[in-house]
Automatic annotation (TrEMBL):
Forms part of the ribosomal stalk, playing a central role in the interaction of the ribosome with GTP-bound translation factors. The keyword Ribonucleoprotein applies. GO terms for cellular component: ribonucleoprotein complex; ribosome. InterPro entries: Ribosomal_uL10, Ribosomal_uL10-like_sf, Ribosomal_uL10_bac, Ribosomal_uL10_bac_type. Keywords: Ribonucleoprotein, Ribosomal protein, RNA-binding, rRNA-binding. It comes from Thermovibrio ammonificans (strain DSM 15698 / JCM 12110 / HB-1). It comes from the Bacteria. Belongs to the universal ribosomal protein uL10 family. This is Large ribosomal subunit protein uL10.
Length: 179
């Protein structure tokens, strides 16, 4: 049994995470096995996110004054919380597989509510977020976009020099042939 001081410490840690995390997703994990939950935690950790299960009674002390207060009504029944701090797209992608199901069965991990950048989000918004390119893909596209004009200019200059050399060789050949 946790002491009052320990519970206050947990509530304070949660409050800090609620304030810092740009993506907070509340889920219902009822029906998931311990192995499935551990696999979910591992996958989220790889994406730079974390998954916590905390009693709803502790949440009442953690969410006041945070963006999560907007979805306080979702703290009913078994609640798992996803906190994404760095790459919210990667976290959404990691969750997508667990919330989509296989088509034959209903997914075991169910969406309750979410906060994205301080605003309430629905499940469709989380799915759209999961379909965005990852941070690395976006950085690659940006690098290509920035590199393209430089490459085009280098190619143009090289092409000009090649044409100049060709013209000069033709002029030289004409003068030698006329002499």
């Amino acid at each position: 049994m946790k002491t009052r001081k320990h519970k206050e410490q947990i509530a304070q840690e949660l409050k800090e995470k609620f304030q810092k995390a740009p993506l907070v997703i509340l889920t219902n994990f009822q029906g998931m096995t311990v192995a499935e939950t551990n696999q979910l935690r591992r996958k989220l950790r790889e994406a730079g996110a974390e998954y916590k299960v905390v009693k709803n009674t502790l949440m009442r002390y953690a969410y006041p004054g945070t963006p999560v207060e907007q979805i306080k009504d979702a703290f009913v029944g078994p609640t798992g919380i996803v906190f994404a701090f760095d790459d919210i797209v990667a976290a959404a992608k990691a969750l997508k597989d667990y919330m989509a199901g296989d088509g034959k069965e209903e997914p075991k991990l169910k969406f309750k509510a979410a906060i994205v950048e301080g605003k309430v989000a629905d499940f469709n918004m989380i799915k759209q977020l999961a379909e965005l390119p990852s941070r690395e893909e976006l950085l690659g596209q940006l690098a290509f976009t920035l590199k393209y004009p430089v490459n085009a200019m280098a190619w143009s200059l090289e092409n000009l020099f090649t044409k100049l050399v060709t013209v000069l060789e033709n002029v030289k050949a004409e003068k030698e042939g006329a002499a």
